[in-house]
Amino acid sequence: MITIITGAEVFAPAYAGINDVVIIGEHIALVENEVDIEKYLVLDIPVNIIPGEGRIMMPGIIDPHVHLIGGGGEGGYHTRTPETHIRQFVEAGITTAVGLIGTDKTSRSLEALYAKAKALTTEGITALMYTGNYQIPPPTITGTIERDIYLVDPVIGTAEIAISDHRSSQPTTGEIAKIAAETRVGGMTAGKAGVTHFHTGGGKAGLGQLKELIEEYDLPAYNIFPTHVNRTDGLIAEAAELTRFGAYVDMTAGPDIVRDVEKFKAADGDVGRLTLSSDGNGSLPVFDASGNLKKLEVASLQTLLHGVAELYESGVLSPEEVFSIVSKNTAEVLGLSDKGRIGENMHADLLLFDDGFNLDAVIAKGVVLKQYGKTVVKGTFD
């Protein structure tokens, strides 16, 4: 199958002008101002032409933090959140997702996470995963972090090791340094990112342990990747400092994302090392000062797409910067060299938006999953 998108305004994520994009199989074959369509039509191969005129094209969204098999449980058995569905990703413009396990390591297993990642990949998107969870020592599939990264294809790092949170194992800096070091070596030997993704709570320590990791241990900053860094204004300032050391940091999309990014920029944070995630299908617990659960909601994957729209419309970032924090930047920290950009030989993961910045089309691995605003892909049992 050959797919040709004509006349779209391409952000690759850098602005590339009005272009036609030719997709052959799972990859982008050509990005050109005016493609000779006739030479493809005479081939004995089906050609699908998608009008892109009046539409904005950007790379497919990469979400580095999704609870593929659900999360939660902080309020008892009935508060375990549900698994994700392929339609959720398509309707949020997410073409690549990285799954993880959070608080609950008893009823959520890495084996189940692996199976879900493989299922979603079969159904249409690219789904990867981290080994581990909140606790130390972290659970693994093969017995060690390094073996998981080396032997289990979807595993690209370790997550979400909890710090500065009453639900964590209260790890020492030395303990998390050992995890980050083993994760890094696993990534080196397997040709993967080897990134350690840290859950950051609202506790007293903030990001202090991660700053200590970078300053006092022989670990590259780019292997350290904290999330939820917009939980408090203090964390935003600390996260901005970490980016100046060379670390990538991740904000959780939500209603205050424009304000949070403004504060990050005001603290001299490097927007080129900022990413955005949904925390999709994870729990959003609210605790009182004594650590008692007050309420619990489920994070929506849609918050990520809404965050992109809000940042785009606000002008707090340039369009290139907005699109980069959910594509190029994320691909860089996760070691996904063939994703996050629109260019020849890159994975054909693309989004089209209409003139009202509504999601019009989703293409993942060269396959159209949403077109003319309608999701066309179905789950296995739909």
Automatic annotation (TrEMBL):
<dbReference type="Pfam" id="PF01979">
    <property type="entry name" value="Amidohydro_1"/>
</dbReference>
<protein>
    <recommendedName>
        <fullName>Isoaspartyl dipeptidase</fullName>
        <ecNumber>3.4.19.-</ecNumber>
    </recommendedName>
</protein>
<dbReference type="GO" id="GO:0008798">
    <property type="term" value="F:beta-aspartyl-peptidase activity"/>
</dbReference>
<keyword id="KW-0862">Zinc</keyword>
<feature type="active site" description="Proton acceptor">
    <location>
        <position position="279"/>
    </location>
</feature>
<feature type="binding site">
    <location>
        <position position="279"/>
    </location>
    <ligand>
        <name>Zn(2+) 1</name>
    </ligand>
</feature>
<keyword id="KW-0479">Metal-binding</keyword>
<comment type="similarity">
    <text>Belongs to the peptidase M38 family.</text>
</comment>
<keyword id="KW-0645">Protease</keyword>
<feature type="binding site">
    <location>
        <position position="231"/>
    </location>
    <ligand>
        <name>substrate</name>
    </ligand>
</feature>
<feature type="binding site">
    <location>
        <position position="283"/>
    </location>
    <ligand>
        <name>substrate</name>
    </ligand>
</feature>
<dbReference type="InterPro" id="IPR011059">
    <property type="entry name" value="Metal-dep_hydrolase_composite"/>
</dbReference>
<dbReference type="GO" id="GO:0008237">
    <property type="term" value="F:metallopeptidase activity"/>
</dbReference>
<comment type="function">
    <text>Catalyzes the hydrolytic cleavage of a subset of L-isoaspartyl (L-beta-aspartyl) dipeptides. Used to degrade proteins damaged by L-isoaspartyl residues formation.</text>
</comment>
<dbReference type="GO" id="GO:0046872">
    <property type="term" value="F:metal ion binding"/>
</dbReference>
<feature type="domain" description="Amidohydrolase-related">
    <location>
        <begin position="56"/>
        <end position="368"/>
    </location>
</feature>
<dbReference type="InterPro" id="IPR032466">
    <property type="entry name" value="Metal_Hydrolase"/>
</dbReference>
<keyword id="KW-0378">Hydrolase</keyword>
<dbReference type="InterPro" id="IPR050378">
    <property type="entry name" value="Metallo-dep_Hydrolases_sf"/>
</dbReference>
<dbReference type="InterPro" id="IPR006680">
    <property type="entry name" value="Amidohydro-rel"/>
</dbReference>
<feature type="binding site">
    <location>
        <position position="228"/>
    </location>
    <ligand>
        <name>Zn(2+) 2</name>
    </ligand>
</feature>
<dbReference type="GO" id="GO:0016810">
    <property type="term" value="F:hydrolase activity, acting on carbon-nitrogen (but not peptide) bonds"/>
</dbReference>
<feature type="binding site">
    <location>
        <position position="134"/>
    </location>
    <ligand>
        <name>substrate</name>
    </ligand>
</feature>
<dbReference type="GO" id="GO:0005737">
    <property type="term" value="C:cytoplasm"/>
</dbReference>
<dbReference type="GO" id="GO:0006508">
    <property type="term" value="P:proteolysis"/>
</dbReference>
<keyword id="KW-0482">Metalloprotease</keyword>
<feature type="binding site">
    <location>
        <position position="103"/>
    </location>
    <ligand>
        <name>substrate</name>
    </ligand>
</feature>
<feature type="binding site">
    <location>
        <position position="167"/>
    </location>
    <ligand>
        <name>substrate</name>
    </ligand>
</feature>
<feature type="binding site">
    <location>
        <position position="65"/>
    </location>
    <ligand>
        <name>Zn(2+) 1</name>
    </ligand>
</feature>
<feature type="binding site">
    <location>
        <position position="67"/>
    </location>
    <ligand>
        <name>Zn(2+) 1</name>
    </ligand>
</feature>
<dbReference type="InterPro" id="IPR010229">
    <property type="entry name" value="Pept_M38_dipep"/>
</dbReference>
<feature type="binding site">
    <location>
        <begin position="72"/>
        <end position="74"/>
    </location>
    <ligand>
        <name>substrate</name>
    </ligand>
</feature>
<feature type="binding site">
    <location>
        <position position="199"/>
    </location>
    <ligand>
        <name>Zn(2+) 2</name>
    </ligand>
</feature>
